[in-house]
């Protein structure tokens, strides 16, 4: 198995490979048409110099390994920023009282691209009431996230639940709904939802503790526009659900 390279080294090798191919083509033309004799050492120095001149366009970070430092030194480049990994503990919790928990998610492949939304409704006794996935056609990530919240709230109201706790991993969606700046294409639907709700709260939830909705959203992205999949308990393909007694970890 090939050893994984840092982003900085990958950029250098890709740039050097491109320059090498270009220089070989140019050298071949000079040999054929100008009758010059190729010099390997001069060719090597030229490739290294041209690769170094491309340094200003390279943004990849390094891992500060011996390999990184040796390659940067070989090409005469400066050290790059080192990206560190931060480990953060995450915990999942159910709402208190009579609130219904709605875990929502939506995504669009290639943004925009084939998209879907998904949500999972649970009560405070950890019982899954519904898991739904829906296809949306080709919108953006933001639109998919918005429709996940709208469809989840409309389902809750249709079942007689008027106290909602909504979890989503999109801060932009939370800000949109809590600040009253709801997108125009769902404004009417959201106004009808708010009119009948007793209370609602939004909670920002990392994907590491919102993976059930993430799984439904991925199913939704495989469906055609308007197509839905509804499960009235835990979906058979979902082996694990969020557990308030388990500590989850986020790496970033």
What does it look like?
The chain is an alpha/beta fold and 252 residues long. Helices cover 38% and strands 21% of the residues. It contains seven helices and eight strands. It has helices at 7-34, 40-53, 66-74, 141-158, 171-178, 187-196, 211-220, and strands at residues 87-91, 100-108, 115-122, 128-137, 163-168, 199-204, 228-231, 247-251. The strands form two sheets. It has a six-stranded mixed beta sheet, with helices on both faces. Strands 1-8 form a two-stranded antiparallel sheet.
Radius of gyration: 26 Å
Which range best describes the helical content: under 10%, 10-25%, 25-40%, 40-55%, 55-70% or over 70%?
A: 25-40%
Q: How can the largest sheet be summarized? A: 6 strands, mixed
The H/E string reads HHHEEEEHEHHEHEE
Distance between the termini: 25 Å
Morphology call: elongated
Which percent band covers the strand fraction? 15-25%
| Main sheet strand line-up | 6-5-2-3-4-7
* Number of separate strands: 8
Structural class: alpha/beta
| Mean pLDDT level | 90
Low-confidence stretches: none
Number of discrete helical segments: 7
List keywords for this structure.
8 strands, 21% strand, 252 residues, alpha/beta, six-stranded mixed beta sheet, elongated, 7 helices, two-stranded antiparallel ribbon
Blueprint (SSEs and pairs):
Elements: H1 7-34, H2 40-53, H3 66-74, E1 87-91, E2 100-108, E3 115-122, E4 128-137, H4 141-158, E5 163-168, H5 171-178, H6 187-196, E6 199-204, H7 211-220, E7 228-231, E8 247-251
């Amino acid at each position: 198995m090939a050893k994984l390279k840092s982003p900085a080294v990958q950029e250098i090798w890709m740039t050097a490979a491109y320059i090498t191919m270009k220089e070989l083509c140019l050298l071949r033309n000079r040999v054929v048409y100008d009758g010059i004799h190729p010099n390997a050492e001069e060719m090597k120095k030229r490739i290294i110099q041209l690769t170094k001149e491309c340094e200003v366009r390279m943004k990849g970070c390094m891992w500060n390994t011996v390999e990184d430092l040796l390659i940067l030194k070989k090409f005469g480049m400066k050290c790059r920023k080192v990206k560190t990994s931060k480990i953060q503990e995450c915990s999942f919790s159910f709402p208190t009282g009579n609130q219904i928990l709605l875990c929502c998610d939506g995504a669009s492949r290639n943004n925009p691209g084939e998209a879907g939304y998904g949500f999972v409704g649970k009560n405070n006794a950890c019982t899954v009431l519904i898991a739904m996935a829906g296809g949306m056609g080709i919108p953006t990530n933001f639109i998919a996230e918005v429709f996940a919240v709208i469809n989840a709230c409309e389902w809750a109201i249709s079942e007689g639940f008027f106290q909602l706790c909504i979890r989503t991993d999109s801060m932009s969606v939370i800000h949109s709904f809590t600040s009253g700046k709801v997108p125009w294409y769902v404004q009417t639907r959201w106004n009808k939802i708010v009119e009948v709700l007793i209370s609602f709260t939004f909670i920002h939830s990392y994907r590491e503790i919102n993976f059930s909705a993430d799984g439904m959203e991925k199913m939704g992205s495989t469906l055609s526009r308007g197509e839905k999949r509804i499960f009235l308990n835990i979906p058979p393909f979902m082996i694990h659900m969020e557990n308030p007694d388990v500590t989850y970890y986020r790496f970033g």
